[in-house]
Amino acid sequence: MSLAGRRAPRQVIWTCVAIAGILGLRLNDVAAVQTTSAAPAQRFDLPQLLTAGKLRSSNREVTKLPERPDAVHVSAKDGPGVIWIDATEFSLGTIEIELRGKDVLQQSFIGIAFHGKGDASYESVYLRPFNFRADDPVRHGHAVQYMALPDFDWPVLRQKFPEEFERSVDKSIAPTDWVPLRVVVTAKAVEAYVGAVTTPTLEGRKLGESSAGLIGLWVGNTSDGDFANLRITK
Q1: How many angstroms separate the CA atoms of 145 and 202, rounded?
Q2: Distance CA 51, CA 129 (A)
Q3: 11 and 63, same domain (yes or no)
Q4: Residues 78 and 27 in one domain
Q5: Could you tell me if 65 and 226 are in contact, meaning their C-beta atoms sit under 8 angstroms apart?
Q6: For 154-158, what is the mean pLDDT?
Q7: Which residues constitute the domain of residue 25?
Q8: Are residues 87 and 26 in the same domain?
Q9: Which of 57, 116, 167, 194 could form a disulfide with 213 if both were Cys (CB 3.0 to 4.6 A apart)?
Q10: Does residue 122 share a domain with residue 7?
C-alpha cells in the first residue's frame, strides 16, 4: 500500500473529529440559549404577601379569601382600583393569573395592571365577564380589553381605534368561574389568552411609552373580584 493510501484513513478520522467538535460546540450553544430563554416562572403567594404588608392598595381594600388559601378578594368601590405588588418590577415577559368576577352588567371589570408608574399611569388587560356570553355581538366583542393610562383609556381607544383593542372570548367560559388569564408583553405587542386557549384571544400593538414598572391586581368602576395563582416569567 502506498504512503498516500496509509494516510487517508488518518485524515478521515481527523476530519470527522473536527466536524464532531464543531457540531458539539453548536449544540452546546443551542442548549445554552434554550436554558437562558426558558426561565422558570416566579410564583407569588398573594395572601402571604398581604400578611407581610407587600400589597399596597389604591382605592380598594384587599382581604384573604377563606374558600381558597392562595387567593385574595378585592372590594368594590366607585372608580378604578389597583392593588400594587411590591418588588414586581416587570418589563417584558408573561404574566399569568386566575380571576373570578361576576355576571352583573357594568359591575364586573377585573384584570391585571403592569408597567405601573403610579395610580394613574399603567397598562392593563382586563375582562368584562358580563359580556362573555352576551347575545348582542357588539357586547360580546367587548369581553377583553387592553389599555394604557393616562393617554389610552378604553373610551379613547373605542372612539379612535374601534375593535382594535377589544375582543370576544369563547362562550364556553362561564362569567362566574375562575378564569385563567395569560398576558404576554413584548417590545411591540401585547397578547392576552383568556381560558384554556393556545392562540391569542386579543393581540394588539404596544401602547404608551412605559417599558417597566409594578404589577397590580386591577378592578374597574363599581367592581370587586377574586385573584389567585399569580406567576411571572421575565
Answers
A1: 8
A2: 29
A3: no
A4: no
A5: yes
A6: 98
A7: 1-38
A8: no
A9: 116
A10: no
Residue 61: is its pLDDT beyond 70?
A: yes
51/2 same-domain check: no
pLDDT at position 208, please? 83
- CA torsion through residues 69, 71, 72, 77, sign: negative
pLDDT of residue 38: 55
Gap between the Cα atoms of 51 and 55, Å rounded: 9
What distance in Å separates the CA atoms of residue 121 and residue 114, rounded to the nearest whole number? Answer: 10
32's enclosing H/E stretch is helix 3-37
154 with 129, same domain: the answer is: yes
Do 186 and 137 fall into the same domain?
A: yes
pTM: 0.84
How does residue 209 score in pLDDT terms, banded at 50, 70 and 90?
A: confident
Residue 160 is which amino acid? Answer: K
Strand residues in the chain grouped as ranges (E): 42-44, 55-58, 62-64, 71-74, 81-90, 93-100, 110-118, 121-127, 144-149, 166-167, 179-185, 189-194, 202-205, 213-219, 225-233
Structural domains of the chain, count: 2
**52 & 125 share domain:** yes
Q: Please, what is the average pLDDT of the chain? A: 88
pLDDT average, residue stretch 39-54? 95
CA–CA gap between residue 8 and residue 193 (Å, rounded)? 60
User: Residue 98 in contact with residue 89, Cβ under 8 Å?
Assistant: no
Among residues 98, 120, 99, the alpha carbon closest in space to that of 109 is found at 99
Work out the number of other CB atoms within 10 angstroms of the CB of residue 88. Answer: 19
**Distance, CA of 113 to CA of 119 (rounded, Å):** 10
Is the CA virtual torsion 172, 175, 179, 182 positive or negative?
positive
What tens digit of pLDDT does each residue of 18-30 get? 444 444 434 344 3
